[in-house]
Amino acid sequence: MTDDNTIHRVDSLLKGGYIGAEKAAAVARAEPLAASPAVLDWLGVCAARGEWTRFGRLAALAAELHPRGLGELLAPVIASGEAGAVLEDLVDIAGQVRAAAAVPALAGLIDSRGETDAPYFPLCVKCVESLGEIGTEEANAALRAVATGAYPDPLRWHAAVELGIEDDLGFDEDEMLG
């Protein structure tokens, strides 16, 4: 059951700064339901309502509290490229929690934003780094496809570095990132 008052209270406790382990523990002490699978229900409610700022804060809380199923909730939001969602943060969280379910969404973002994210590729590089953190066979295959594919050189470089194959591919850092 979703209690809007509880969601609001937890969200109020999360406002104002970085949500790390210490803040997450304090919120869980103040509202024990925050450390339960209820946080996943709250994320679903926020996504359905399009409350993306709140969704992001609750996702950061959940990343610190480790409820099972977080990756499965993040994946469709990342895949949608929802304009109101802070995709860079959600991509980081997917990597942090090693969300294997998010691999197709992360690879899809690289494909869809690989040219438009230029010249510094902040979102795509975060996707590459998260794929590296996830480290599954599927994530490594996505990284290899970027490293050896027709992607912009900076993305190819970062993917190769995540896999540790930049020397094998004969990549020169100055050339690739210059």
Q: Estimate the strand proportion.
A: under 5%
How far is the N terminus from the C terminus? Answer: 53 Å
Low-pLDDT ranges: none
Question: Major sheet: size, sense and barrel closure?
Answer: none
Binned, the helix content reads 55-70%
**How many beta-strand runs?**
0
Q: Enumerate how many helices there are, as a single number.
A: 11
Q: Mean pLDDT, nearest integer? A: 93
Note the run of SSEs as H and E.
HHHHHHHHHHH
The radius of gyration is 18 Å
Structural class: mainly alpha
Looking at the structure, what is the overall shape? elongated
What does this structure look like?
The protein has helices spanning 4-14, 21-30, 38-49, 52-65, 70-80, 87-96, 103-113, 122-134, 137-148, 153-163, 173-177. The protein has 178 residues and is mostly helical. The longest helix has 14 residues, at 52-65. The protein is elongated and about 55 Å long.
